Amino acid sequence: xxxxxxxxxxxxxxxxxxxxxxxxxxxxxxxxxxxxxxxxxxxxxxxxxxxxxxxxxxxxxxxxxxxxxxxxxxxxxxxxxxxxxxxxxxxxxxxxxxxxxxxxxxxxxxxxxxxxxxxxxxxxxxxxxxxxxxxxxxxxxxxxxxxxxxxxxxxxxxxxxxxxxxxxxxxxxxxxxxxxxxxxxxxxxxxxxxxxxxxxxxxxxxxxxxxxxxxxxxxxxxxxxxxxxxxxxxxxxxxxxxxxxxxxxxxxxxxxxxxxxxxxxxxxxxxxxxxxxxxxxxxxxxxxxxxxxxxxxxxxxxxxxxxxxxxxxxxxxxxxxxxxxxxxxxxxxxxxxxxxxxxxxxxxxxxxxxxxxxxxxxxxxxxxxxxxxxxxxxxxxxxxxxxxxxxxxxxxxxxxxxxxxxxxxxxxxxxxxxxxxxxxxxxxxxxxxxxxxxxxxxxxxxxxxxxxxxxxxxxxxxxxxxxxxxx
Length: 471
Prior knowledge:
Blueprint lengths: L1 H16 L30 E3 L22 H9 L4 E6 L17 H17 L2 E6 L4 H4 L6 H15 L6 E4 L7 H19 L6 E5 L17 E4 L6 H4 L28 H5 L5 H8 L1 H4 L2 H86 L4 H11 L12 H7 L58
Parallel strand pairs: 1-2, 2-3, 3-4, 4-5, 5-6
């Protein structure tokens, strides 16, 4: 009975062991050259197996239901004898949280105690233990923040609990990310979890994955030198998943323990195919004489790597094409704006030239009008001398006599002679009236309009015109 359990443990391992020593390469994938930037750094472990059904308890269970059937010295001793140096232990963290801890998501003390037993065995036997967060449905269980708070809290606690242990401990953040929200945001959340752990523990390696988990080309990259990148590769499925949970998960429950690797001539694929209903798996069992060989495994692996390289090149090519498109658009937009600006500058110069021409025309016209006015004025006879003669005649008075009494005083001292009006001869000479001097015309009051037209009626001065003719 015990050997049957050990057999079930190591069956998934055989596919990986069979790869050693096989050098055939169907897709031309070559290992990275030493010293190159893409050189793959080997892990400290080489062969491993899952220790399932121990820390991955069923729904409704908690740390009291952790099964320690495989977690003992005998198991670890047999594993080392098989050359196994790493065990991956699936754990359902969501079922080990204290129900009353609220959003602190405190892990149960019983879980941490059992975890110590497991890690102690690993350090004792020199086997690396991968602490694998292996539960589905976290996003549905913690919908408020898409399980971000839960994930950060439990990994902080695990890191705090394990930070002083040897390097024989590795953290696997999530087995296979699920849920619609994680489909689009897992890479971002995974980066945050790495940051949370590194605040506490910078010694232990962290396993990161892509979403979808089977996509090598979708693996994200993070700025951390102590990460292990993984993708899930299950070929051949009829071997790696035989005897899986009953129901519709793998459809291979009925043939558990009956599919060997590599294929041998004692294997009866037709007989096993009759025991299952899935058409794809039936075909795989019938063709297992090829699919169950080292060549087929390497071919499938090389194909995945080649597809990842092609996808990476496609991504880079698409990014370059998009950058080129944006650059062309930017250049085109810049050229359009430059042409518009050039046109605006040309329009401005044309307007300026038109305004300058109009100004020069106006100045030229003004000069011509001024010249016409000056020529007309120069052609008029002298007007100042006659006006001065008229003023002299109008103000001529008799010379005063000596001892003459002023008229005003004589009129005051003398008695009034009579009320009769004095004769014309006796009337005093009228006082001379001051001659009104013509006002000088300001430039803005010039009688000559801009559109000057010679018109004698507009003249207000001249020798041949009397003051009565002025208007």
